[in-house]
Amino acid sequence: MKAQDQRPEDTSASGDGTIADPGSLRPGERVVYPNQGVCQVVGVETQEIAGQRLELLRMVREEDGAAVLVPRGKVAAVGLRRVASRDYVEGVFHFLAAQAENPELDWKIRHRDNADRLVVGGVLGVAEVVKGLHALSHIRPLPTKEREQYDGARHLLVAEVAAALGVPEGLAEDYVDHALLPPAGTRFQLRPPPKPVVLPLRPRHRPERRADVELDLDTLGLELELPEAAVAAVGAEGEVAPAEEGALAEGVEQAPEEEAAGAGPAEKETARERVKGKGRGKAGERVKARAPARKGKAPPKKAARQAPKKAPKPRKGAKR
Amino acid sequence: MIRVVTLDPVDAGDLAFLCRTLYQAFGLGTELSGERKRPAGADEKDGRVDAERLLREAGAPRVIADDKVLFVTAADLSVRPGPLGEPPAWGFAQYGGQRAVVSTRRLPARGVSEASIEAWRRRLAREAIHVVGHLWDLHHCYDARCAMHPSWSPSLPANPDADLCNFCREKSERKVRMAKT
Q: Is the pLDDT of residue A136 over 50?
């Protein structure tokens, strides 16, 4: 997992107590499995899985008694940590009660950052997610996915606060909301909150495209779907001659100009705008526009335009 | 089944309205299960009642697996102060458990007019839905119109709806369906 590989080794700054050596865990000890909640250590056992003998750390999730098994070698990688200390949790409450920063409005960045915070951020990271989404909910209702993320983060936070402070979960929830939404007229004497969670580094922008890389539909991840009849027709007739193809394609591009030639000034202007706008369409639209030309079939409008014109009526008084 | 137990005298009409609203909110049968004495051991020196101890020590009717018991009291409830002080308590519930208590002490005055009595009943029903929601694993909701919104929130409307928002309703329905009985 990339996010966990880039996690800083020194976790003492965040106070989350990530466990590096599973040998230090004793049966009955309470630990926090990121995104799962508070678990109780049962012990280490050996199992044979897919022909390999693995040493597994067995835990029981306190919430519902579900069994959780983690290979000993993966304990540090999954971010297993001890339950936060009472002092640290108090610091988290001062963070929750402090004024909220402006929430990230780009949902992709926000969702990714929140997912990272839940995994690597410890109890403070979970509190950041709850506070951030809570602040966002004042601006607009959360979409379903983020509503679920908010509820999940709140569940993890309440469980860990309850475990750290030794209070029932119902009371821990009241503490959290007392800090987030203080009653009218309440003022807290706040301390400076703990340092914010350091998120894993990730590229914020798309990688630059190299000039020597050829862009085709496969590279762009596009798939051109043609009707079966059209594919069969191309297969029977063979490739369209380049000159013909060019002529047809050119005909498609120039059609509005031809229209404009025999139209009034307002219609001419509209036709010019249509020609200008052609180059600005999406890639898919251009492909669709050109696809009938490749098949050798003229669009219906063009066919009508190419019909032989009637001979113009001679003017009165003109010499024959 | 939700069983309502009174620890102090409550008007019969109010209790009937409460049972009806709880039934509508959770789709579970709700019935009155009589009166009990408030446990003396839960009283504190300042005249309030320790909510946690009250739930532990109050006598309850006979219940089966997933029954929930809601105590209604007129006493002022207190809870342990947290890192930022003591949150105000309209009620208290054993999260995901079986017992909850709601207090009428902090509700606005009941009054004598039909409108004020109706408003009072709706507020009592809202607090009851809130604590019973905690029994079904519901967390607080940011939506001020939802019954799971914190009771002390400044954004709580003057006449709150005694109902759950869509998210909380669906979650509670899921929990109720998954319950053993």
A: yes
**Angstroms from B87 CA to nearest CA on chain A:** 6
Shortest alpha-carbon distance between residue A57 and chain B (Å): 28
Enumerate the β-bridge partners of residue B103: B73
What pLDDT score does A230 carry?
63
Interface of A with B (CB under 8 A): 63, 89-90, 93-94, 97, 134, 137-138, 141-142, 147, 150-151, 154-155, 158, 165, 167-171, 173-179, 181-184, 186, 188
ipTM score? 0.93
What is the per-residue burial (b if ≥16 Cβ within 10 Å, else e) of B7-18? beebeeebbebb
Q: Quote the pLDDT of residue B168.
A: 94
pLDDT tens profile B53-65: 999 988 878 888 8
What pLDDT does A14 receive?
40
**Chain B residues in contact with A178 (beta carbon < 8 A):** 82, 84-85, 87, 152
Across chain B, what does the average pLDDT equal?
Answer: 90
- What are the Cα distances from residue B41, in Å, to B38, B51, B52, B57, B93? 9, 11, 11, 8, 18
Q: Which residues of B touch A165 (CB under 8 A)?
A: 82-83
**A281 pLDDT more than 90:** no
Please report which helix (H) or strand (E) contains residue A303, including its range: helix A300-305
Residue found under tokens 């007019």: B113
Of B56, B28, B30, the closest CA to residue B41 belongs to B56
Q: Are B98 and B68 in contact (CB under 8 A)?
A: yes
Chain mean pLDDT for chain A: 72
Which residues of chain A does B96 touch, with a Cβ-Cβ cutoff of 8 Å?
63, 169
Asked whether the beta carbons of residue A147 and residue B154 sit closer than 8 angstroms, the reply is no
The residue among A156, A133, A132 whose CA lies nearest residue A83 is A156
How many angstroms separate the CA atoms of B155 and A138, rounded? 10
**Given an 8 Å threshold on Cβ–Cβ distance, is A89 in contact with B89?**
no
